[in-house]
Amino acid sequence: MTLGELVQHVRKHMLRDVEKPYLWSDDLLKAFLNEAQDQFARRTHCLIDEESSFTVLETEVGEQVYRLDPRVVFLYAVYSDDGRPLRDGPRRQMPIQPGEAKPTAFTCDTSTGRLRLYPAPDAVYTLYLRVARKPLQPLVNDDDVPEINEEYHLALCDWAVYRALRNNDIEAVQ
Known about the structure:
By secondary structure, the protein is α+β, with helices and mostly antiparallel strands. Helix content is 28%, strand content 21%. Strand 6 (105-109) and strand 7 (114-118) form a beta hairpin.
């Protein structure tokens, strides 16, 4: 379903808001549907990505901590430039090596958006990330299609209806 179809479905079949002037504007329902798509992607990790530009990381000599893109929800794996996966584990199990070398392990805290490599890189390396992410673009135009699989589009509608009905003062929001 397109964004326009989702808005009409929410308005007509779920909210029964068919008389003009509408109680909820199209812009408000679109905002709720965008919020729904974002929430769905963050909670289900359904948008897996290893091809976007933010999934490629260039290391810096001696730099151990890197900031992840804010769209990253979860980090599944980190691969070296030769395709080998880096070891993932708790910080206390990471290799303690004096000096610098090619990274062989990592830890990640997606809540703070930081990736830590072990040991610190001794040269510039290219690492490839496999991540769960938020949607890349917000839904704006009526012909935009959510990135979430179509089988879950009605779940987006459920969230939008929940948000619309939860709002006590609809006239103040518009």
